[in-house]
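We were asked to recover a plausible sequence for a given structure. The inputs and outputs are reproduced exactly as logged, with field labels preserved.

PROBLEM: sequence recovery
POSITIONS: 234
GIVEN STRUCTURE:
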């Protein structure tokens, strides 16, 4: 739990020790549990369900305008789906939460391991990176709880704890809205703790590690937003 208050001390303590599986297994299981709970609670909110229906309606309207579907086909699909779409979203979202949690753990660990090895010239065991990222996942666990409370309070499935809370009518097509949503305070905290971990394991300065991690995140988010992928909810 010291990862919340004194992450530097945590990483100093694990640096000289062999990789401990429990340091990433427990956090990732907690992240999966919180993720599944979030999905079921979020898609049970009437405001979120209405938001999904409105988004779906806009997509169907665009397809009709583009001649890809007829209005009759749209009506048939909507009548068949009904409220079943929310159950499908809950089931698919639950599997997605578990799958993404594990994939993200090992993929991010690989990226940071390569950063340490090729850029910082400080090679160490890949599983030590997994241990570090796993411990940082505890920030995501708390962030998941905070995020759910924000969504329930606002009725907006894209609401995040940060400047996006000032937006009344969130629009996925609005790049300013997407940029403000990206400024999730928990995400910034998470990247900061990752920076501390990279700094401790590589022996590089915290500023150097933070510049690489925050810079990479900013470039990635900007690419997603301005490429149009942000409009899909990424």
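RECOVERED SEQUENCE:
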């Amino acid at each position: 739990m010291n990862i919340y208050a004194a992450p530097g001390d945590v990483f100093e303590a694990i640096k000289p020790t062999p990789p401990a599986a429990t340091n990433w297994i427990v956090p990732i299981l907690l992240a999966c549990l919180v993720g599944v709970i979030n999905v079921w609670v979020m898609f049970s909110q009437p405001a979120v369900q209405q938001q999904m229906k409105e988004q779906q309606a806009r997509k169907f309207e665009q397809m009709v305008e583009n001649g890809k579907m007829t209005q009759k086909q749209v009506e048939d699909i909507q009548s068949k789906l009904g409220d079943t779409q929310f159950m499908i979203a809950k089931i698919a979202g639950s599997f997605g939460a578990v799958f993404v949690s594990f994939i993200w753990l090992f993929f991010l660990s690989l990226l940071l391991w390569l950063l340490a090895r090729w850029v910082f010239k400080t090679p160490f065991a890949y599983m030590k990176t997994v241990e570090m990222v796993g411990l940082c996942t505890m920030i995501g666990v708390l962030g998941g709880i905070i995020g759910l409370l924000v969504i329930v309070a606002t009725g907006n499935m894209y609401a995040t704890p940060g400047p996006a809370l000032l937006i009344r009518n969130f629009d996925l097509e609005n790049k300013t809205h997407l940029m403000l949503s990206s400024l999730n305070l928990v995400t910034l905290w998470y990247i900061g703790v990752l920076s501390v971990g990279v700094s401790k394991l590589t022996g590089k300065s915290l500023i150097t590690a933070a510049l690489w991690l925050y810079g990479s995140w900013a470039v990635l988010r900007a690419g997603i937003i301005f490429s149009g992928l942000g409009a899909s909810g990424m």
